[in-house]
Amino acid sequence: MGVMIRIFDFILSLLGLCFGLPVLIIIWGLGLLDTGSPIFRQERVGRNMVSFTLVKFRTMSRDTASVASHLARSSSITSFGRLLRKTKLDELPQLWNVLKGDMSLVGPRPNLFNQAELIHARDVLDVYSVRPGITGLAQIKGIDMSTPELLAKIDAEMISTMSVVNYFKYIFLTVVGKGQGDRIRR
Prior knowledge:
Blueprint: H1 2-19, H2 21-35, E1 39-45, E2 51-57, H3 79-87, H4 94-100, E3 104-106, H5 116-124, E4 133-135, H6 137-141, H7 148-160, H8 164-175
Parallel strand pairs: 3-4
Antiparallel strand pairs: 1-2
């Protein structure tokens, strides 16, 4: 199953990057005007707890602390960033992470190394045995990193029930707008 998913990841991310290039360029340009630095890079916990650099479009001001989204203030999100988050377009650069093999299209969302409670809960349930993903069951259900035990449980459930059908189901549900990103505190 893992090899098949990796093949789907490679093909779909390559197609997404090729066909999405005009959109990526437009968002990059608008992001440059919005914050002066449209790309956001951050070290995240990957498969087997190995570090990798996640890339996204920047949605928060450049001086925002490097914390999980649910710990950031809503005032740190720019106007353009709100639009990117609402449409999930801020995630598009992660197709590069998928193409490289750091991530999968479907898997547990990659967390920061300073999220000790979530790391412990996921480690106990062997969630780090798979590549992190852009979307997954937790995102479809609206569960974010503010509830670490529940998130780890749902991630483990997704991993144990992963199939080609579920892989495409989670992608489809994400594309049509099901679920949400991490909450931002007010």
